[in-house]
Amino acid sequence: MAVCFQFQSPLKPITFPSIRNQKKVEPVFTSVKSFAPATVANLGPGFDFLGAAVDGLGDYVSLSIDSSVSPGHVMISEISGSSKLSPNPLFNCAGIAAIATMKMLNIRSYGLSLKLEKGLPLGSGLGSSAASAAAAAVAVNELFGAKLGVDQLVLAGLESEAKVSGYHADNIAPAVMGGFVLIKSYDPLELKPLIFPQNRDLFFILVSPEFEAPTKKMRAALPAEVGMPHHVWNCSQAGALVASVLEGDVVALGKALSSDKIVEPKRAPLIPGMEAVKKAAIKAGGFGCTISGAGPTAVAVIDSEEKGKEIGQKMVEAFLEEGHLRSVAMVKRLDRVGARLIDSVPI
Amino acid sequence: MAVCFQFQSPLKPITFPSIRNQKKVEPVFTSVKSFAPATVANLGPGFDFLGAAVDGLGDYVSLSIDSSVSPGHVMISEISGSSKLSPNPLFNCAGIAAIATMKMLNIRSYGLSLKLEKGLPLGSGLGSSAASAAAAAVAVNELFGAKLGVDQLVLAGLESEAKVSGYHADNIAPAVMGGFVLIKSYDPLELKPLIFPQNRDLFFILVSPEFEAPTKKMRAALPAEVGMPHHVWNCSQAGALVASVLEGDVVALGKALSSDKIVEPKRAPLIPGMEAVKKAAIKAGGFGCTISGAGPTAVAVIDSEEKGKEIGQKMVEAFLEEGHLRSVAMVKRLDRVGARLIDSVPI
Fold first, then answer.
1. Which residue from A106, A171, B225, B255 has the highest number of Cβ atoms inside 10 Å of its Cβ?
2. What secondary structure, in 3-state letters, does chain A show?
């Protein structure tokens, strides 16, 4: 949702469910490698409380016990895939989340070195910061025997999100947990996974233009107040969106995704060509389309990869014709797993 | 939601999906009797778009072919259970819905006489007008061979609702269809039944005080605008409410029901004792509580009839102690059927 080196105070303090006073936590691996997926959030009427993970696109974190690093600290040894990120762990999404996870586990006797491979572009609206944070939180947790549950990993990631893009869990929760996740509340944190049926296919068509979404303008475009009729409308569409996910009804999901009358109408005009891209997606057979995160990526949904590619092509053409922007289309399945260990070296 | 003799212009014209130009519709019975259930609408964050039907509580309509009634017309021959309703079919919920249904079926050669038995009190927040309208629409439809589908019956009932309590379908749709119904849109009318799992029990605890809810004040209490944080909160709770219904999670349903930050906080203070009743319901083990419709009935939810009775007793006590209102408690199952034929006399 935002670039990783931005800094912003969290809106509310984070409660750490630390496991202090419990048995000392020891590493079970000398090194691990983790992956966390991209996410689409602000799903139309799901603004600020619903997000979904995207398969085959995301960030990698490699983490090792490193005796040259001060105990209880993290050193970022390498960042690939982006030249814009700070190697200072206090200013880096992966670093912040790794430190938060270490605190939760009360790790004071080991230093860690972290390597971040960005598979996601920054500021594209695909949950880049959340993917780095989720991968780092999971890597630390797995390195020390997976003592923390997903809620705690989300809280660790949330500390990173709060610093870089505001206190919102709609990217970090699906990045950690996979699938669709509804954020029911923050205090206490209550996450509701919405299981999309296993026997149904859902593809996201993600079209990212070469355009830096004006983050400040995107935020300023949000109305402070919402008229009652629009409020009721968006609430009803949020309900329909949740039903469509649980029932695996991709047509209804698309329709709900397209139905936002509050945020998208204010933000879409700030992304050149977005309105035309949405029309093109639907005309080409997409079941629905909206802005992914705070943009500039457009996200449409469909039930077949082949159709998705055709639709993506039309969306790319619309970005070029109407927005004068070059763009790249990808067709990706729903990720049902979330952040995960992909490699490990035993002690 | 409102008393039946009020009059109000519909907010938008109603489209009649008439079956004109089709084969002439003939009666298949000389008389029928129908039932339609009470409904709870404005379910916390489900305000104005979500309602549910209540088993074993509702209105009855008896309808006969009557050669003494002008063809194409309806005469209301008897109203029992209420002395406040107009026998003029143009000013009576059942009459309006019956006429609307006759128009849809293009019935011009038969006159009908209608008897209405009110099982529901007026203006209690239990969808009294919708129950009468649903029973009448279903009676006419069944008398003539059930040519219309539920969407059309809801539209016929909606004409009645528009005249007596505003253009809202969150009572009439569940009164016709049973279960929970989400109103996705009005133009065109799109109704989404939310199936509560068959193997789960859901009980509504309905506590109706002797108090006439100040309808005008109740409407005026609705804010014209909603702050963005409250909008996002209520949308997320609406999503959680829908998920809880589809998953049959009565605890989560109660929690979502209780979570409204927009309408209930404004309306509850207008019903003496309501806030205390809600607290009493939850303290006694109810999973959640809110105002039913526009009140004054309080509705709580639970998964056992026995526990429901205990909770209802505590709610009655709270209405008396804090609101100085006498009240009656009922514990009723979710109705899964909706308006139905219960008797018929063949031709």
1. A171
2. CCCCCCCCCCCCCCCCCCCCCCCCCCCCEEEEEEEEEEEEECCHHHCCCEEEEEEEEEEEEEEEECCCCCCCCEEEEEEECCCCCCCCHHHCHHHHHHHHHHHHHCCCCCCEEEEEECCCCCCCCCCHHHHHHHHHHHHHHHHCCCCCCHHHHHHHHHHHHHHHCCCCCCCHHHHHHCCEEEEEEECCEEEEEECCCCCCCCEEEEEEECCCCCHHHHHHCCCCEEEHHHHHHHHHHHHHHHHHHHHCCHHHHHHHHCCCCCCHHHHHHHCCCHHHHHHHHHHCCCCEEEECCCCCCEEEEECCHHHHHHHHHHHHHHHHHHHCCCEEEEEEEECCCCCEEEEEEEC
